[in-house]
From TrEMBL:
GO terms for biological process: phosphate ion transport. PROSITE patterns: ABC_TM1 (PS50928). Residues 75-285 form the ABC transmembrane type-1 domain. InterPro entries: MetI-like (IPR000515), MetI-like_sf (IPR035906), Phosphate_PstC (IPR011864), Phosphate_Transport_Permease (IPR051124). It comes from Candidatus Alloenteromonas pullistercoris. This is Phosphate transport system permease protein. Keywords: Cell membrane, Membrane, Phosphate transport, Transmembrane, Transmembrane helix, Transport. Part of the binding-protein-dependent transport system for phosphate; probably responsible for the translocation of the substrate across the membrane. The lineage of its organism: Bacteria, Bacillati, Bacillota, Bacillota incertae sedis, Candidatus Alloenteromonas. Signal peptide: none annotated. The chain crosses the membrane at residues 20-49, 69-101, 113-139, 151-175, 267-288. It is a multi-pass membrane protein.
Length: 295
């Protein structure tokens, strides 16, 4: 009589179950992404063409209650806040990660790393309160010329602090992933610690640093509550960092529970623009990263 090995069958059944469970989990992320995209573009795109493409994108008159849906000021403010906060927070985060990687004494490394990681768990509304009580008054009293502290500068300062944990943690992981022989080889050739780090280790970790910048810019672009609290929320088309303005996410948050009919549909159209903008930013970084690898 042929003997059946039930343990082998049981193992194969478990493997098949795990395989399908992992596949379903992976497909769930893809399904969620496409569901959100379909919802936004199926509703938002017809509204954009109904309003008029030029009127929607090239007008700065944003008053949905009155039937005016120009998002140029919102778009400009969003891009400026994202750019400035990514540059400032990215630079501070990069140098902080380099310091933690090599120059900070071991007795201070863990406390510094812990303090930075705690920043990621603080609710965004706390950052907003900090901005209102400290950053806005400082800008108003010592920096701004017109006596107003609300605007792009205040939002940039708050967001720069918010993206620090992301920038530092991912950059530090990228630096730690570089083979130590790179650093030691540079030292053996006569390079100083600083030169070996900046000329050899950091360039070798640039792929991970790019990833940190992508995630940081996404956090800055999508942040809502803290930005609403310090930017002033007036849809002004301005490049003055000390003038009150409004971002795409702020416009959605402020009107989501108050608007109805076409005004609410306009917020979905703004969401579609924000979704497309986030996709384009990630795509550009991916192209830059791909070209960097080829070089």
């Amino acid at each position: 009589m042929e003997r059946i090995d039930y343990r082998v069958k049981d193992a194969k059944g478990k493997e098949a179950f795990v395989k399908w469970a992992l596949l379903i989990c992976a497909l769930f992320g893809v399904l969620a992404l496409f569901s959100i995209a379909i919802f936004l573009f199926a509703t938002g795109t017809p509204f954009i063409f109904k309003t008029g493409f030029s009127s929607f994108f090239f007008s700065s008159d944003w008053k949905p209650i009155n039937g005016r849906y120009g998002i140029l000021s919102l778009f400009t403010s969003t891009m400026l806040v994202t750019l400035f906060s990514t540059l400032l927070g990215g630079a501070i985060g990069l140098f902080a990660a380099i310091a933690l990687f090599r120059f900070v004494p071991k007795s201070f490394k863990k406390p510094c790393s812990f303090a930075i990681s705690v920043l990621s768990g603080i609710p965004s509304v706390i950052y907003g309160l900090f901005g209102i009580d400290f950053i806005v008054p400082f800008i108003r009293d010592y920096v701004a010329t017109d006596g107003s502290g609300y605007g792009i500068a205040a939002a940039t300062a708050v967001l720069s602090i918010m993206i620090l944990p992301t920038m530092v943690s991912f950059t530090l992981d990228a630096l730690n992933a570089v083979d130590r022989s790179y650093y030691e080889g540079a030292l053996s050739l006569g390079a100083s610690r600083e030169m070996a780090l900046m000329k050899v280790v950091v360039p070798a970790a640039r792929s991970g640093i790019f990833a940190a910048l992508v995630l940081s810019s996404g956090r800055a672009m999508g942040e809502t509550m803290a930005v609403i609290m310090v930017i002033g929320n007036r849809p002004n088309l301005t490049i003055d960092p000390f003038q009150s303005t409004l971002t795409l996410t702020g416009a959605i948050a402020l009107g989501a529970t108050e608007y109805s009919d076409d005004a609410k549909t306009s917020l979905i159209a703004v969401g579609a623009v924000l979704f497309a903008l986030t996709f384009i930013v990630n795509l550009v970084f991916a192209i830059i990263k791909g070209r960097d690898k080829k070089c």
